[in-house]
Amino acid sequence: MALIETLTFVLGIIYGYVSPGRENRGALLRKGLIVGIVLAIILAGLGLFVGGTIMALSGMAVFIEVVILTVLFIIGTWIGDWLEGRSKIKSRVTKVSP
């Protein structure tokens, strides 16, 4: 994995662990897709105005990369939620036993 993908995955784990409760993964996916679409439209528009086909095609590449990063972040939040749940179970057990 490249550095940015690994960093996104680790940040997803941290976000899932630190934020209380379960995350709304559907909302996270929608926000990621919206960001990807906006960035793709901006880059494609710039490419069309500048006249570079490569720039216009890079809009689609940015959209795909944002979707990949969003999915990695969501997987990270799932793992972070799992770790958070495990730590709560462990702390409940230690409180009950003398």
How would you describe this structure to a colleague?
The protein is an all-alpha fold. The chain has a domain at about 25-75. It is elongated. The mean pLDDT is about 80. It has helices at about 5-20, 25-50, 55-95.
Relative strand content: under 5%
Give the beta-strand count: 0
Uncertain spans, ≥5 residues at pLDDT below 50? none
Structural class category: mainly alpha
Along the chain, the helix and strand elements come as: HHH
The average pLDDT value, as a whole number, equals 80
The Cα radius of gyration reads: 19 Å
Task: Name the descriptors.
3 helices, 88% helix
In short:
This protein is an all-alpha fold and 98 residues long. Helices cover 88% and strands 0% of the residues. It has helices at 3-18, 25-50, 53-96.
Write the layout of secondary structure elements.
Blueprint: H1 3-18, H2 25-50, H3 53-96
Helix pairs in contact: 1-3, 2-3
